[in-house]
Specification:
The protein is mainly beta and 118 residues long. Helix content is 13%, strand content 35%. The chain folds into 2 domains: 51 residues, no CATH class; 56 residues, no CATH class. This is RAN guanine nucleotide release factor.
Length: 118
């Protein structure tokens, strides 16, 4: 297993544990303010952390799925697969006083990278 490091996100508002070799894509090209994007130097895989706007018409697990599928649709994904959706313990969140629930979704999307055909 690769060595890992704690990586601050969104100016230190929270952090993620990433492989030491993960490359911050914002050092290579512009990244929107609501995203943190990292890529692996060997596997051609990317990790995108995106802050999304509340959608009041969906709640709970359905909201996590809605956002994941919406992002895939906007990006023109050929395939969108949700692997798991789990509630997050509010006690472990830095923003615990600001939300009533939080969900973590793990999944895969098959999307063409910049300047490539799908």
């Amino acid at each position: 297993m690769e060595p890992m490091r704690d990586c601050p996100l969104f100016g230190g508002a929270f952090s993620a544990i990433l492989p030491t070799g993960a490359i911050d894509v914002s050092d290579l090209r512009p990244v929107p303010d609501n995203q943190e994007v990292f890529c692996h130097p060997v596997t051609d895989q990317s990790l995108i952390v995106e802050l999304l706007e509340l959608q009041a018409h969906v709640q709970g697990e359905a909201a996590a799925r809605y956002h994941f599928e919406d992002v895939g649709g906007v990006q023109g994904a050929r395939a969108v697969h949700v692997e798991s959706v789990q509630p997050l313990s509010l006690e472990n969140l830095a923003l615990r006083g600001c939300c009533q629930e939080a969900w973590g979704l793990s999944g895969k999307q098959q999307i063409a990278k910049e300047n490539q055909q799908p």
